[in-house]
Amino acid sequence: MPANRSTLLRRGIAAVAALPLLTLAACGYGSDAKNDTTTKVAAGAKKTDGLDSVKIGYFGNLTHATALVGVQKGFFQKALGATEVKPAIFNAGPSEIEALNSGSIDIGWIGPSPAINGYTKSGGQSLKIIGGSASGGVKLVVNPKKIKSLKDVQGKKIATPQLGNTQDVAFLNWAADQGWKVDAQSGKGDVTVVRTDNKITPDAYASGSIDGAWVPEPTASKLVAEGAKVLLDESTLWPDKKFVITNIIVRQGFLKEHPKAVEAVLKAAVDTNKWINANPDEAKAAANKRLEIDSGKALPAKVLDPAWKSIQFTDDPLAATLGTEAQHAVRAGLLEKPDLKGIYDLTILNKVLKAAGGSPVDAAGLGSS
Asked: Are 131 and 317 in contact (CB under 8 A)?
């Protein structure tokens, strides 16, 4: 691979890492979430693995609702006993990976591309994917006055959240499938890719500076509320309409030193997903309440309701789709062919699933053993 291609991923990571966070916390990576009555430690509870706290990272996206609901409804705190849950919120995958590597967080919810990048950049030493969380929730939404069919996307300006992020890779791969040529680094070609932070994408759409966007929820539904139309749901491009959008990762040192704490968090995640799927309306409200606590603003029903419907919550990491997403990044020139063997360690998750009467999940040949 030419030198400019081999350095592209690093440039992308440096660029997105510079994006503003919600607020600056003492750790310099993410903003500390506020505590409320749902996260108080139960009287008489004991510490897990002797830890005073476990630091959990996630994004303020509905695709991270397992974390949002788990924090808001106290599932994590209940599982960890007297070990305090300390949530931190991130806007960018690279910043969360940096926080994990530095020890500012222990466990995180994150998309597949940052997980792949973090694992490969460290030579397989930094993190493990230990569970799944969500599938779906990504759409191509467009200005219906300018784009009426998929072929009309050619020649238009389409936003993605970040250079090299999960949605950016997916859109570049889809564009290549249409036979269009796009320079991944500049975003210029038969279609123009405009890397735009999700927080400002609706304003960019309203101003006419973009014609559409390939984005996760709730940004997609925010655009629809502005008059955009859904042209394509990414789930339709995948077998069984399932693909990983959010994983659970852990710092390898923390996994080795505190397996009981990791097991507690995974048990809480499994319990949370079970509760979400059994109580979708209550779960939707809990996720929205957590977004309001973390960001100061809840989502209106016209955004929340359609966004929630497009996301599936699952304990299965859908490992085969992560391998495919890595291939898409290689095809786009954003990543050299990675060695992902060992990126998954699903041992504890499968132990938790078995205890709950569930079926084991598979690492698709990318497990630790």
From this structure: yes
